[in-house]
Amino acid sequence: MRRFTLPLLAVLIAVAADSAHAQEFFVGARGGVNLATSDFDSDVFSEDVGTLTAYHFGLLASVGISRYFSMQTEVWYSRKGFAEGSSGVSLKVNYVEMPLLLVIKLPTRLSPHLYVGPVLALESGCKATTLNEGEVDCEDTEEGPRPRGSDSGVMFGGGVTLPLGPGSLLLDAFFNMGLTNLSETTDYVESVRTRTTYLSAGFLIPFGRSAR
Questions:
Q1: Cβ(112)–Cβ(160) under 8 Å?
Q2: CATH number at residue 157
Q3: Is there a domain that residue 80 lies in?
């Protein structure tokens, strides 16, 4: 047991010592393209639904924990769902998404980084398009899915940080695996779980730095 405890303790001490002089606070904004689809279970529609091209934009804040780690929280306005190609069947759900991400950084010239963490989303609007009803509000459809009002998931991704002027440019890609069954079960739709890829650019500005 001691063989494992001592190295782990050494790592924790090193991280704590490093964090004493590495804490920084950043604020910024980001935006980009969503490639949204869903894990879809229905007796009427195809289970292999297509991709809805949409968007996201919002604000972010990041605080350094150590040279290699930081915590980042973001608030986005984002559209998710799916589109079934030539049939015109689609689901377009607007959300306020709130990821809470651990950032793992490699302090080199390009500063590559990885993200992982949970995300909560609150619905702010929904349109469903079906073969018989056309495009209607989700609460008015009898055939399409009826989202519950919120979504949750696990987000992970990566990117690079580039120095630019007074701040830093972020070039990132994320994948959000939705965990919540969005659909209130109907005679036509059993479950919908979102699967969303984000291609995103952001800009961070240092706001303050702890005493060294």
A1: yes
A2: 2.40.160.20
A3: yes
Neighbours of 33 (CB within 10 A): 14
How far apart CA 167 and CA 170 sit, in angstroms, is 10
pTM here?
0.81
Rounded distance, CA 127 to CA 100, Å?
27
> How many domains is the chain partitioned into structurally?
1
Q: Is residue 18 part of a domain?
A: no
pLDDT tens digits, residue range 4-40?
444 444 444 444 445 444 568 999 999 999 999 988 7
Q: What pLDDT, in 10s, does the model give residues 43-82?
A: 555 556 789 999 999 999 999 998 899 999 999 999 998 8
Does 133 have pLDDT greater than 90?
no
Range of the domain at 93: 23-209
List, in sequence order, every residue forming a beta bridge with 205; answer none if it has no partner: 27
The answer as to whether 163 is a domain residue is: yes
17 inside domain: no
